[in-house]
Amino acid sequence: MLGQIFRYLKYRTKAKNRYKIHSPFAYGFLNNVLREKKYYDDFKILDSLTRELMESDKIIETVDYGAGGKGKEPVKYKTTLGKVAKRRSHPLKRLHLLYNLSAYLKPSTMLELGTAVGISSMYLKKPVPESKMITVEGCPVLASIARENFRKAGLKNIDVIAGNFDEVLDDVLQKFDKLDFVFFDGNHKKEPTLDYFNKCVEKSHPGTVFLFDDIHWSGEMEQAWERIKADERVSVTMDIFWFGFVFFRKGIAKQDFVVKY
Ligand SMILES: C[S@@+](CC[C@H](N)C(=O)[O-])C[C@H]1O[C@@H](n2cnc3c(N)ncnc32)[C@H](O)[C@@H]1O
User: Fold this and answer.
1) 119 touches ligand 1 (CB under 6 Å)
2) CA of 18 to the centre of ligand 1 (A)
C-alpha cells in the first residue's frame, strides 16, 4: 500500500497536463479518449448493469488466478458477486474511458485477458457491435456470469474462454489474423505480463493499441512496463498511472507521455 502511494506521488511529479505533441494521432487520442467528457446513451444501460453487479449479495464460489490470489496455486473461496465485481473491475470513470477508447479506435478485433464478470468487456464491446472479441477468464464460474451479462447487455460476437492464460493464449491467438486492440487485465506479475505481451505483439500491426492495467501496482509491474516502453517495436506509450497505453505506429518518434488523469 505504502509502495503504491509512493509510486503514485512519483507519477504525479512527472505527469503533465499539456504536451508539445507533434503527432496528430497522439493529440487526437489525448483529446478524444483521455479528455473526452461526452455522456453516451449507452452509459445508462452499462452503468446500471455495473451498479447492479457491484451491489449484488449473491454468494458465488470463485478462484483468483491473478497476483491477488494467496500463494502460488489459485485459491477457491466463497464471496458475494458484488465484492468480486467491485474488487476486480474499475470505477465508472475508467470504464467510460474504455468505452471512449473503443468508440474512437473502432477496433474490429479485440482480445481481453481477464474477464472477471465481464464489466470492462461490455464497455469495450458496446461501441463496436460488429467487432470480434475474445475475453479470457481462469475462473469458470465468473466466465459463465460474464456470458449471462453479455446476453443482458444485448452483446453478440464475444467469446468467453474459460482457462488459464498460460495454457490457452496460444490457441486463442490462432483465432485472430490480426489484433487491433488488447486489454491486459489479469495476472499482474512481471514475467507472465511480458510473455503475454510478446505473444500478442506477433498479431499486432501499426494501428494496434495495447492497454495494460495497473502498470504501477507493484515493483514487478513497473519493471514490466519499463521493458514494454523500451521495446523497439513500440513507438508511443502513455501512462495515466492506472493504465498504460502502447502504440505501434510507424513514422513517429519514440516517446513516453506521462499524462495527468
Ligand atoms: C482485474 S480482473 C479483470 C477485470 C475485468 N477486466 C473488468 O474490468 O471487469 C482479473 C481477472 O483475471 C483473471 N486471471 C488472472 N490471472 C489469470 C490467468 N493466469 N489465467 C486466467 N485468468 C486469470 C482473474 O481470475 C480475474 O478475474
Assistant:
1) yes
2) 33
Looking at CATH, the fold of the domain delimited by 2-56+88-258 is given as Rossmann fold (3.40.50)
Q: How far is the CA of 73 from the centre of ligand 1 (A)?
A: 15
Nearest ligand 1 atom to alpha carbon 163: 21
Cβ distance 104 to 130 under 8 Å? no
The DSSP call for residue 139 is -
Q: Which residue ranges make up each domain of the chain?
A: 2-56+88-258
Looking only at the bridges linking them, the beta strands covering 75-80 and 59-64 are: antiparallel
Helical spans, DSSP H, in the chain: 2-14, 24-29, 42-55, 81-88, 92-105, 119-125, 140-152, 165-174, 190-201, 219-230
Place of cell 519493471: 223
CA dist., res. 232 & res. 243, Å (int): 20
Nearest ligand 1 atom, CA 139:
25
Per-residue pLDDT reduced to its tens digit, 95-133: 999 999 999 999 999 999 999 999 999 999 999 999 999
Taking the C-alpha atoms of residue 196 and residue 187, their distance in angstroms, rounded to an integer, is 10
CA dist., res. 103 & res. 181, Å (int) = 12
* Tens-place pLDDT, residues 78-100: 999 999 999 999 999 999 999 99
Q: Is the CB of 185 under 6 A from ligand 1?
A: yes
